[in-house]
TrEMBL record:
This is Inositol phosphorylceramide synthase. It holds the Pfam family PAP2_3. The chain crosses the membrane at residues 40-57, 106-124, 136-155, 190-212, 219-237. Its main location: membrane. It comes from Streptomyces spororaveus. Keywords: Membrane, Transmembrane, Transmembrane helix. It is a multi-pass membrane protein. It is found in: Membrane. InterPro entries: Aur1/Ipt1, IPC_Synthase-Related. Residues 74-254 form the Inositolphosphotransferase Aur1/Ipt1 domain.
Amino acid sequence: MKTLETRTDVSSPIAVETETRPGSERTLLSRLRAPRRPRIWFEVLLIAISYWTYSLIRNAVPEQKAAALANADWIWSVERTLGIAVEKSVNHTVDSVTWLIVGMNYYYATLHFVVTIGVLVWIYRFHPGRYAATRMVLFATTGVALVGYYCYPLAPPRLMNGQDFIDTVLVHHTWGSMASGNLKQMSNQYAAMPSMHIGWSLWCGLTIFAVASAPWARILGLLYPTATLVVIVATANHFWLDAVGGMLCLAFGYTVSRSWYGSFAHRLPRHPEHAGPHPATELLNRVRVRTRA
């Protein structure tokens, strides 16, 4: 019995050592996929450059006014056929309550960015192991939306001809949209499909619902995209079907992230295991060593 115990004690470190070796000799692809603790300077730089690139490409898409208006007429016709063309009723009803529509204008202009950045910071701070996968969902969603803007120019309801939609930003003199008033030259007015207000808000809501532990936070997470849907319709910035386009883009984003990391973000460990230096960091270090030599 003592001999067996001794053998067991001796063999354990060897087993651990054997299990460790394959981890250190993983393929480059598996090492790239391994979740790592994010670095704040890199994330701020990445997000800034990515959003700048997104805005540049989105606004560089030719404003095909005739095609955008024709597509808006077609969307409106399809919604009437389906019996869901209630955007005008919602727009006029909410516009009759000044404080409500003004609040929605500012909601449209600000929370789209504030909440999205807030969720990114929250995941970065408290769930670093899930951060990269969560961020990839957002990036892939936004990237595929650019394809939609280029392939399917669409005018928002407020720019349609002869449909009597109210541009609530112009009427109430608020700055609820960069595509209205004096700021309209800074943004592509005919990039309404898909709606990234829905794509981003639903990403925020699902992330909060999947990761948060407090019931009230999970409820608020689901209410946020719901409120956003009402806002984009009430302000005549989007059709219902634009929201469907945003949801499809988000589904694509989740598919890309899951394919890369092998799991949905909320199922990954909250804190990443030590995966060694990033391959890109190793490459830079080698270049530095060779340069010094």
